Amino acid sequence: MPSHSAKRIAVLTGAGGGIGQVLARRLLAEDYAVALIDKQRPDYEVGAAEEGNVLRMAADVTDGAALRDAARDVEAHFGGVHVLMVNAGIGPSGTVSQTGAALWDGVLDVNLTGAFNTMQAFLPAMRRSQGVRSVVLTSSVLATRGARNMAAYGASKAGAIGLMQCSAQEFAAEGITVNALAPGPVQTPLLDSLPGDALAELEKAVPMKRLGTPDDVASAAVFLAGPGATFITGQVLVIDGGLSGRAYWRDA
Ligand SMILES: NC(=O)c1ccc[n+]([C@@H]2O[C@H](COP(=O)([O-])OP(=O)(O)OC[C@H]3O[C@@H](n4cnc5c(N)ncnc54)[C@H](O)[C@@H]3O)[C@@H](O)[C@H]2O)c1
């Protein structure tokens, strides 16, 4: 018998990262049991009462077989999958002129092929589960807005939106929604490579005058995964404090 006390089951990749850790805690607070997946087994603490609702796993999203094993283990342990948060990602910079094959392949492998592998591994268990079911991919505002030195990253995140839109059509008739989040800059280790003054400049450029927080992203993810969003599918929800909507050339 599956052993957990939660109402619904969620799977989260990139669970050890800045957004992942906060999202995991939010999902537990919302009464999900959560399978935490990252390249290294995520070992951070959750509340003692919640520990029985957590399954910690190591899997590289570029390894489809490892993800299929993980999916089998999650289904055996928790009894199903309702929510899939496709969140693992890397964000190295590079212009089109400078990006070598290794960087290009590495970013596409994790951010796009990894998202595909994750969905292909876990969707069969979701189809066997009942009730509200949803996939939420973490894309980026860089999928639809250009940054001169983020060629591979922007392409991978745009690809993830294409993947999301096609799978939203594929699974709509079964009641499984598939949507994407498009965060602007969020204060996490992913931004560590930016120099301090670049972060300050970025903050100033955001109409709300701050960077996003993992909580901002988690709130949107929980909404899209939940019972209030069951007729929303194939959409991109932007979480950027107004940044990508800003006509900066007309600002006073
Ligand atoms: N932080 C931002 O500004 C920002 C903005 C837009 C989108 N995003 C996206 O949000 C998601 C989470 O990013 P974050 O900000 O928490 O960054 P992060 O670097 O803190 O976390 C990313 C996590 O993904 C994991 N990961 C990387 N490669 C993996 C692999 N091959 N297999 C399994 N796990 C792997 C890492 O170990 C890490 O725990 C990413 O997809 C990122 O592209 C972040």
Helix-strand layout with pairing:
Layout: E1 8-13, H1 18-29, E2 32-38, E3 54-58, H2 64-78, E4 83-86, H3 101-128, E5 133-138, H4 151-171, E6 176-183, H5 196-205, H6 214-225, E7 236-239
Parallel strand pairs: 1-2, 1-4, 2-3, 4-5, 5-6, 6-7
Helix pairs in contact: 1-6, 2-3, 3-4
Describe this structure in words.
It contains 6 helices and 7 strands, in the order βαββαβαβαβααβ. By secondary structure, the chain is of the alpha/beta class. A 7-stranded parallel β-sheet has the order 3-2-1-4-5-6-7, sandwiched between helices. The N and C termini lie far apart (63 Å). The structure holds nicotinamide-adenine-dinucleotide (NAD).
Shape: globular
CATH topology description: Rossmann fold
Unreliable residue stretches: none
N-to-C terminal Cα separation, in Å?
63 Å
State the gist of this model.
By secondary structure, the chain is α/β, with parallel strands linked by helices. Helix content is 39%, strand content 16%. Nicotinamide-adenine-dinucleotide (NAD) binds next to α1 and α3.
Keywords:
7-stranded parallel sheet; Rossmann fold; 7 strands; 39% helix; single chain; 252 residues; binds nicotinamide-adenine-dinucleotide; alpha/beta
